[in-house]
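During the no-cost extension, the postdoctoral fellow (Dr. R.K.) reprocessed legacy sequence entries with the updated structure-token encoder. One reprocessed record is reproduced below for audit purposes.
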Amino acid sequence: MRSRQRERGMALALAIFALVVVGGLIAAAFLAGHLEQRTGRSTLYAAQAADAAEAGAVRALEQWNVLGLGSLAPGASLTLPRVPFAGRTAYRITASRLNEQLFLVKSLGTTANAGGGMMARRTVAIMARLASLGAGPEAALTVAAPVEITGGDVVVSGKDDCAPGIEQPGTRVVAPSSELLTRFGDVTFDRLKARAGVVLSDTLPGSRVMRGALSATRQSVIYANGPRLELASGVKGQGILLVEGDLDITGDFDFTGLIVARGRVRISGGRTRIVGALVAGAPSGKNTIAGMVSIEYSSCALRQALAAAAFAEPLGQRSWIQVY
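Re-encoded structure tokens follow.
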């Protein structure tokens, strides 16, 4: 009888021991799963913050002039407001100008929870170099083919309104292979057109860009990628106008800045006034100017247009670093 009682006591102890062991295993598994879940969430938050930081750095270079980073003085820094990115992520840009050409752009990416608490942060930095567009053409009209001017109301003046007493050539004829037709400082025509804020894609032969098409935007670079761009009906604009093909001006036209056409330039009818410089790069054919036309060289207009279109680009090697 006593033996059976002792056996019953042993069974109870074994059952309790088994429950403790099973409970420990369950608790360990739960703890491991909880740690893995938290690790996964932390990794996700860190990846989201890193993505936001990289996106901020890239956008800072894309929106260089819009953000006003090029106007920083050497040694100065500028921290921009926080910008929401995706979900609960955001980035904040800090740009520092190291010297005349080099910039350090830092982008802080953050991820927050539903209550706004900080969950992760990552910082990336890019070393960028300012691509200068130089001072522009040194003549009011630069061409690679002859210019036929008809009528007594055509004025092509090299007198610089910003530098009294200094006069550039009114018309300058250069070789078709001259870089003066396709290169501006450190930037070529093709690189500059890739950064155009407005692209006129429907400039097929005979089409027109009517009133307001250029004046409706304040973008610094406007690019027409068709074989012919015809401007009419009182078009106004400013900045840099790049034309892939021929440029025809058939009505009232007023532009301040730089106009570069890879094809021929034909101006007729209406009143045309260009303050800055005009470049026509067609190696063959004839450029014609007739009517009430005034092409006036202006270093101030060129400097303003080219400075507004300047941009920064990452260094060729080792330009990007992740800062923790």
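The radius of gyration is 33 Å. Helices lie at 2-62, 64-67, 189-193, 299-309. The remaining legacy entries will be reprocessed before the final report is submitted.
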